[in-house]
Design a protein that fits this description.
There is one protein chain. The protein is α/β, with parallel strands linked by helices. It has 2 domains: about 5-95 and about 175-330, 3-Layer(aba) Sandwich (Rossmann fold); about 105-170, no CATH class. Helix content is about 30%, strand content about 25%. It is globular.
Amino acid sequence: MTKSNTPILSAVDLHLNFQTETGTTPVLRGVSFDLYSGESLGIVGESGSGKTVTCLSLLKLLPSPPADYRRGEVHFHGLDLQRAGEAELRKVRGGEIAFIFQEAMSALNPVLTIGDQVQESLLIHTGMSKPEAKAEVVRLFEQVGIPDAGQRYAQYPHQLSGGLQQRVMIAMALACRPEVVIADEPTTALDVTIQVQIVELLKELQQDRGMSLIFISHDLGVIAEICQRVLVMYAGQIVESGPAADIFDHPQHPYTQQLIRTIPRLDSPRGSFEPIAGQIPSPENLPGGCAFHPRCAMVMDICRKETPRLLRQSPLCEVRCWLHDPSHKEKDLTGKS
């Protein structure tokens, strides 16, 4: 789908800390990106990289405290969501920007029927009467592929399979025809066949409705299937961004390269994928310089001492790595000019 030149949503220099018993912990460190109308944008990275926190921060869904929204802006139709009042945010949340949360069984209320849970959003945001809202929920259930939608309306979450629960979450997110849908690991804990069905459903719905989609996942195979553009996150920062084809065919950052090597290939022997050595650092104990340097096979001295900038490599691609920063050639490997 062709995107417009003006972003529908823009995050600018987002910084977020968590206040803990031991002090202040930086969780997001200068995250900026744009989302365009009708675009599907993937956010990838290992657990703990900041993917979900980034998207929750867009709508200030993390309670404060412990979350401390230190700095940054989120622009949506002329409104800065970081400075909007609670009443303004309630209109946007669920109505204009909606979430599909991971692990539907945990996200759905076990003591309310699935019909009542989806209907609630319609009653809050659209002014429909209860009969009108019920009819719309049944129609939504049919649209997302829930069989016997009229009968399912009165069922409870535990009476549905994992795949049907996730379809309920999708129906809930789409109920008010939002412009932006944020899908947070929507295929987590589902078997492969159901994962494929959910991804195909989201693609069809996006095309039918023309909505913008942010898809969060650690599964690069799923991202490659559904997303046009990709952000790669590590330790609360974007380390690479660009069109999906460029990210997968010509990854620039060593972290992105290693992530791609972890994808099993059909033409490779079973079990031959390469895991990334080490683990993502805790926000409380970030290493100096580039946060990825302790795990990087191409580490240089400057990587241990100075944090790299996010540099534009082409009109559509950016990377945060000293290997691609011409200014490091003007320094010796001690980091001195």
